[in-house]
Amino acid sequence: MTRTIGVKGMMCAHCEAHVRKALEEIEGVISAAPSHEQGNAVIELDRDVPEEALKKAVEKAGYEYLG
After folding, report:
1. Domain count across the chain
2. Please, are residues 67 and 5 in contact by the beta-carbon 8 Å criterion?
3. For labelling, which of 2, 22, 23, 40 has a CA lying 20 to 30 Å from the CA of 13?
């Protein structure tokens, strides 16, 4: 299953890598493809992951979760 979330504050490829790493550490996340240009991250999941877990990962990485 695929899910797209909004992420505010990414400015470059380094920011994308930081968000990708944080999201991919969550159990159930297969891959994450953040885009600073689009202000989002497309996440591939192998199970339902609580929104709160995604939010915490994005915020811990230093960015704003927009859902």
Report:
1. 1
2. yes
3. 2
